[in-house]
Design goal:
Length: 260
């Protein structure tokens, strides 16, 4: 039987000389929102990059399937075509490529008609409180951190992916923008049945998003699973109970300071 949605089985991956993900098993069904929390350096962004097939990372064992299709054998653009969408923690700038052009190319390659695309972009931009004309801006160029995340949610709403990873979309968003973005993500999930893996440090985003499950990643492994209450408790108490004697966690908290 082919299972629907994203299924990650025993995934080990890393960069040359270093294993970062140390055996991850998780699944996200269509229409599910699953949250991943965890200290800095635990491998959250690596997980999102490995799902997308970013070149810096190598999968050493395990599998990542979307609707039964093995993704680890596909190039990044083929994964995008298979329906995987990533909002990266640090969205890439594409000088010279407008949002309009990027979306048009993606839709054409999916065989979707692109009539009225410009108006659709502006309509969706206004829903996430994007203040000005978005369609002819270069992708992520001269946008603030929060504007980049909102512009990427606009793209997600137009592409209607099968599965999306949202890596810290709440960074740089004020309370109102956060609410608007969460509402929009929920609408996309409801309308398109998109499965979502949402990476965040903050329960306030999850209160808006109401995830089906909350996972805790530490040192490349899933150490805990719960519901929104787990996220709320973690925000209050931190990750001390998962950290025990792991020396790499110390650099995590230092990174925290510099990323603020
Ligand atoms: P998180 O998103 O949970 O903060 P990351 O996945 O960004 O963590 O990083 C996990 C660990 O892997 C960190 O120690 C980081 O320095 C390391 N790492 C991630 N990507 C690379 C890379 N491309 N090259 C070398 N080390 C990396
Ligand atoms: Mg990260």
């Amino acid at each position: 039987m082919i299972s629907k949605g994203l299924a990650i089985q025993d995934l080990r991956a890393g960069v040359p000389g270093r294993e970062i993900l140390k055996g991850i098993t998780l699944s996200v069904e269509p229409g599910e929102v699953v949250a991943v929390m965890g200290p800095n350096g635990s491998g959250k962004s690596t997980l999102s990059n490995v799902i997308m097939g970013r070149a810096a990372y190598t999968v050493t064992s395990g599998s990542i399937k979307l609707d039964g299709v093995e993704l680890t054998e596909l190039q990044t653009h083929e994964r995008a075509k298979a329906g995987v969408f990533l909002i990266s923690q640090y969205p890439e700038e594409l000088p010279g490529v407008t949002i309009d052009e990027l979306l048009e190319a993606a839709l054409v390659s999916d065989g979707v008609r692109t009539g009225g695309l410009g108006a659709m972009i502006e309509d969706q931009a206004s829903k996430v409180g994007f203040p000005e004309r978005l369609r002819d801006r270069f992708v992520n160029v001269d946008l603030s951190g929060g504007e980049k995340k909102r512009a990427e949610v606009v793209q997600m709403g137009i592409l209607n992916p099968r599965f999306a990873v949202l890596d810290e979309i709440d960074s740089g968003l004020d309370i109102d923008a956060l609410r608007a973005v969460a509402k929009r993500v929920r609408e996309i999930v409801a309308d398109s049945g998109t499965g979502v893996l949402v990476i965040t440090h903050y329960a306030r985003l999850l209160r808006e998003l109401e995830p089906d499950r909350v996972l805790v990643l530490q040192d490349g492994q899933i150490k805990d699973e719960g519901d929104l209450e787990l996220a709320v408790n973690l925000e209050r108490t931190g990750y001390a109970e998962y950290l025990d004697s792991d020396p790499s966690s110390k650099s995590g908290s230092l990174e925290d300071l510099f990323r603020l």
